[in-house]
Amino acid sequence: MPKMKTHRGLAKRVKVTGTGRVLVMGHHRNNKRMKKRSEKLYGLRGMQPVDGTHAKRVKRLLPYHNVR
To answer: What is the C-alpha end-to-end distance of the chain, expressed in Å?
Structure first.
């Protein structure tokens, strides 16, 4: 049976923690920044957990990661 391939585009954009949570950078940050409040831009810094509705898809695209 051949090895399953990791989706490299997703692997570059997410981080899987040791407990299996998937983190991704906040979106809506780069376009039209002058219109956004500084509090909103501050909140988009750092990585945020991926929504649970996408967990099944992420698990399929990253077969060799410890995704829960």
So the answer is: 24
